[in-house]
Design a protein that fits this description.
Layout: E1 5-8, H1 12-23, E2 30-33, H2 46-51, H3 66-69, E3 73-75, E4 80-84, E5 89-92, E6 97-99, E7 102-105, E8 109-111, E9 124-126, H4 130-142, E10 145-149, H5 153-164, E11 168-173, H6 185-197, E12 201-204, E13 208-213, E14 220-224, E15 229-232, E16 234-237, E17 241-243, H7 246-250, E18 259-260, E19 272-274, E20 279-283, E21 288-290, H8 295-309, E22 323-328, E23 331-337, E24 347-354, E25 359-366, E26 369-376, H9 382-390, H10 397-404, H11 419-422
Helix pairs in contact: 1-8
Bound molecules: flavin-adenine dinucleotide.
């Protein structure tokens, strides 16, 4: 039987797996196949390439020599196109077959283009890779107006980057407020106000009907469903991502939203593992299956998969996958657990708001326990909220009041969850280890 360990994908999940394999002392040959041009970049910094603050070459998560130093054979700009799980081999687009004794699918996620006419026109971009960010940055060199479709984190970071370059930018969000997956209406409005202060136009409740070439063939017109249109020198589609499941599906792995894995990150196929944005795991705090889609989760899962592939048993036991933090237009926010559920059924919601300087907290309790917290403007004790949610700690009326007014301290019996939070590092890279 082949001794090779094969990793598909070159993002943080695969990179963390390489480190874990080496740390475990495994000396089997490791081959990594990635369709990108080289080692992983910190995707969370891509908007800084768009703004011109950073070059892609400065965003490396590991040094250029990482794979060489690790003794890994890295095959760049090559796609894996098929897995034959019975013969235990992977076919590459160039026709080569790689045999494996253990295989990791770390194929990540890819941007979703909305199903509207013209979404593939030139001048319409998505933002996932260093190459995407450079292409958008180049287009912004000559564009006077940009439209960002989608008011989630990636779209808002792009909009902020355009504003910083003096490009007039409009964010079009189909739902009623910004970041509707993570934030409630008030928090979304606070974010919109901060962006507007930077000169960003925000259009919520506005769906795109189509994209058409602009008058005289210059630029684009973004036609809105409710009537009216926006002119744009470039468009960024930030309308979500979906796990890249095709390889796993073709091989017959169990798939729902993502590739289903057990606590060892093993798929339903023998010796085939999955980690990162492609994998669907059970979150015991949320009590449901999730595809977390965050960097730190990809790293943690990649490490577990790597150890198991190296023959050292390891389990992934997420304490809370739903933890997002960032800063848009100078406004910091943290979203912990089920922060955005409506007040209905067993959910009890408590809020506090202060206009100047803007601070908003939303607590969600269920059966006397904190199950979610939304912090805007002041995220200084986010780790305390995270620990309460992750440990399902019972909240007294006094605790609740302290949590609501930002006075909460960590009960001695509750350890902090994240080292980064302990250090009080709060920026858009908060989730990056
Ligand atoms: C603009 C932006 C900002 C972000 N900001 C944050 C943030 O602030 N905090 C946070 O936690 N997360 C953030 N994320 C998300 C984070 O980057 C992802 O969760 C993380 O990259 C997932 O890692 P991964 O290894 O699973 O997949 P990826 O990083 O997507 O890597 C997968 C790789 O596999 C390659 N691949 C796919 N199929 C094949 C194939 N068949 N053959 C060969 N190669 C293949 C892909 O091209 C890709 O290079 C951000 C993402 C973006 C795009």
């Amino acid at each position: 039987m082949a001794k090779n360990i094969v990793l598909i994908g070159g993002g943080p999940a695969a990179t963390a797996a390489v480190e874990a394999i080496m740390e475990a002392g495994c000396r089997d040959p490791v081959v990594l196949v990635s369709d990108e041009a080289g080692p992983v970049n910190c995707r969370c910094l891509l908007s800084r390439v768009v703004s011109g603050e950073m070059a892609v070459g400065e965003m490396g998560w590991r040094p250029e020599s990482f794979y060489r130093d690790m003794g890994v054979e890295a095959i760049w700009e090559e796609r894996a196109v098929r897995i034959d799980p019975r013969a235990r081999r992977v076919e590459l687009a160039g026709g080569q077959w790689l045999e494996y004794r253990a295989l990791l699918l770390a194929t990540g996620a890819s941007p979703v283009r909305p199903a509207v006419p013209g979404a593939e026109l030139p001048g319409i971009h998505t933002l996932r890779t260093g190459a995407d960010a450079m292409a958008i940055g180049r287009a912004a060199d000559t564009a006077r107006e940009a439209v960002v479709v989608g008011g989630g984190l990636v779209g808002l970071e792009a909009a902020e980057a355009f504003a910083s370059r003096g490009v007039a930018v409009t964010v079009v969000e189909a739902r009623e407020h910004l970041m509707p997956e993570q934030l409630d209406a008030r928090a979304g409005e606070m974010l919109a106000a901060s962006l507007k202060a930077l000169g960003v136009e925000v259009r919520c409740g506005a769906a795109v009907a189509s994209f058409v070439p602009g008058a005289g063939g210059r630029g684009l017109a973004v036609e809105l469903a409710g009537g009216g249109s926006l002119t744009a020198g470039l468009v960024v589609l930030a309308t979500g991502v979906r796990p890249v499941i095709e390889l796993a599906a073709g091989a017959g792995a169990e798939i729902r939203q993502g590739v289903i894995v057990d606590e060892h990150m093993q798929t339903s196929l023998s010796d085939v593992y999955a980690a990162g944005d492609v994998a669907e795991v059970y979150d015991p705090v949320l009590e449901k299956n999730v595809v977390p889609g965050t960097w730190n989760v990809a790293v943690a899962q990649g490490r577990v998969a790597g150890r198991n592939m190296a023959g050292v048993p390891a389990s992934y036991r997420p304490c809370l996958t739903a933890m997002h933090a960032g800063q848009i237009a100078g406004l910091a926010f943290a979203v912990v657990g089920q922060a955005n559920v409506p007040e209905e059924g067993a959910f009890e919601v408590h809020t506090m708001y202060r206009a100047e300087p803007p601070v908003y907290r939303r607590l969600v309790l269920k059966d006397g326990r904190l199950v979610g917290a939304l912090l805007v403007g002041d995220v200084s004790r986010a780790g305390v909220y995270q620990a309460y949610v992750a440990r399902k700690y019972r909240v007294s009326a006094g605790d609740r009041d302290d949590l609501l007014h930002g006075r909460a301290v960590l009960p001695l019996s509750l350890p902090l969850i994240s080292g980064d939070l302990r250090k009080g590092v709060h920026n858009r890279c908060l989730n990056v280890l």
